[in-house]
Amino acid sequence: MVLVAPSLLASNFLRLEEECKMINDSQADWLHLDVMDGRFVPNISFGLPVIAQVRTATTKICDVHLMIEEPERYASDFKKAGADRLIIHLEACRHLHSNIQQIKSLGMAAGVALNPATPVELLSDILQDLDTVLIMSVNPGFGGQEFIPHTFQKIRTLRRMIHDRGLKTLIEIDGGVTTENATPIIHAGADVLVAGSTVFHSKDPKATIHTLKYSD
Ligand code: DX5
Ligand code: ZN
Predict the structure, then answer these.
(1) pTM, full prediction
(2) CB within 6 Å of ligand 1 — which residues?
(3) 102-108 LR contacts (CB < 8 Å, sep 24+)
């Protein structure tokens, strides 16, 4: 069954504790936390102190998506703040292999995110070292954008690469995921759905999480 990771970016920041409790009571598997530095992406979100506080309010696995330059400078700080999984962008790393080893040596699951124009084939020599590949299905930086249809092709190609090598790497899809496109995304080969606006802007977020979880 697909894993669901609501993205806190779309939540009401004035009510973070209640939003975390709602997620705790839901069928969400992970809590997705988007960190933006205003350099790698044209937006600034939240950082270490917020994540450290959210950690005290959530019972879910903290899936931290770093949209920042030189993420290796902060990996150990995000571990201390409570990250269970750390995702860094291929486009932001000069020494991806070493950065992934660093994340693992800190005791976190390691993932690489790819922008829409970055081919999945570029992961060919590192796939075996990754717990997760996050395919961005919108340009990173903002919630509430539309899913880019070419993503389906990327998911299928990556699924084949993982299958052919007998790996267990998870495929995570982030951006524009809705209750309508969840099923085709899962059929293409996704393991994890990140959903921000679809969950937090819905009338009944817990029911929406349930719908995503049981999409097939
Ligand atoms: C975008 C972030 C996403 C974002 C998704 O840069 O990485 O995680 O929160 O938001 P929605 O689901 O609204 O597209
Ligand atoms: Zn994200």
Answers:
(1) 0.98
(2) 7, 9-10, 32, 34, 65, 138, 140-141, 143-145, 174-177, 194-198
(3) 102/72, 102/75, 103/75, 104/129, 106/75, 106/76, 106/79, 107/79, 108/75, 108/78, 108/79, 108/83, 108/84
